[in-house]
Design a protein that fits this description.
Shape: globular
Number of strands: 6
Order of helices and strands: HHHEEEHEEEHHHHHHHH
Radius of gyration: 20 Å
Distance between the termini: 41 Å
Structural class: alpha/beta
Strand order of the largest sheet: 1-2-3-4-6-5
């Protein structure tokens, strides 16, 4: 099994969340990636935090951000790698933005100008909006006066690695679009700029690391076990327990649904009952049976 998992690690690309998170944990790699994606020089001061969990209230759903860091101007950059289209990414980005904003002010703070500017970047190998663009940047504008922006410091950027509008983008950006889904030596070698090569060096280091191999093996085995147990016919109680554990660790509904081969709606029902029942497995099971 170990050799099989190592092979799987070798085959991962940046579009895979495990490799993306481990790569972007390096400040220089994340700085290079954000600078390429936004086509603007970003100077990060913080080491990126990966899989950062936020829950502003026990009654509210927890979120987990793939990568977060801050630049010298106090702007927060938080990025998500999304391999599959779950159909709810627009509103999911809104919820993430709201949760992050709430976490930025201390209790009792009255000055909303203390809110950091933020930039949410969602990267995907598909087109969320269906317009064929590589990049969609959203900032609040007035419907009546399109040239008027609200300037509240919040920006949401959606990256589609399979865009069609090559004109107007740097070659480095276009090379990076290819590299995200094909993170191989030959792709990095074709890149004109050194920042993609810098990111690839980090990727190669992760692939060579015995520690990372063990970490990925644990990650892979846990997902395989969850799928095997959760899908077994007649194991509703076990499924509820596993889903609750993953929810408490910060996994998203989409990730859990994908692992267990269940619909998001079904996992959403378990989540709602878990919040209502304080994650008491027996109470959740009884209420599921009564539905």
């Amino acid at each position: 099994m170990a050799e099989n998992v190592v092979t799987k690690l070798e085959k991962l690309n940046l579009v895979d969340r495990f490799l993306f998170d481990e790569t972007m944990e390096d400040r220089e790699a994340y700085q290079a990636a954000v600078s390429i994606l936004l086509e603007n020089e970003i100077d990060l001061i913080d080491r990126p935090e990966t899989e950062k969990e936020l829950r502003v209230s026990p009654q509210l759903r927890q979120i987990r951000l793939d990568v977060v860091s801050m630049d010298k101007e106090g702007i927060l950059y938080y990025s998500e790698m999304q391999k599959k289209d779950t159909g709810n990414l627009k509103k999911r980005s809104r919820y993430y933005q709201a949760q992050l904003d709430v976490s930025l002010l201390e209790p009792g703070s009255k000055d909303f100008d203390l809110l950091n500017d933020t930039c949410f970047i969602l990267i995907a190998p598909f087109d969320v909006f269906g317009r064929g663009l590589y990049r969609y940047t959203f900032e609040g504008t007035c419907r009546e006066c399109p040239d008027l922006k609200i300037e509240d410091g919040a920006r949401r950027v959606f990256i589609n690695t399979r865009g069609k509008n090559r004109e107007g983008f740097t070659q480095e950006f276009l090379d990076f679009m290819e590299y995200i889904t094909a993170s191989r030596d030959e792709t990095a070698d074709r890149a004109e700029r050194g920042r993609i090569k810098l990111i690839h060096e980090r990727v190669k280091k992760i692939r060579r690391s015995e520690k990372m191999g063990v970490k990925y093996m644990q990650f892979w085995e846990e997902k395989a076990y969850a799928r095997e147990e959760g899908r077994a016919e007649g194991h509703t109680q076990k499924l509820i327990q596993l889903v609750c554990r993953m929810l408490q660790r910060g996994n998203t509904l989409e990730e859990i649904a994908d692992d267990f081969g269940e619909s998001i709606d079904y996992i959403e029902v378990i989540y709602q009952l878990a919040e209502k029942c304080g994650y008491d497995y027996e109470k959740i099971f009884v209420q599921m049976a009564d539905r």
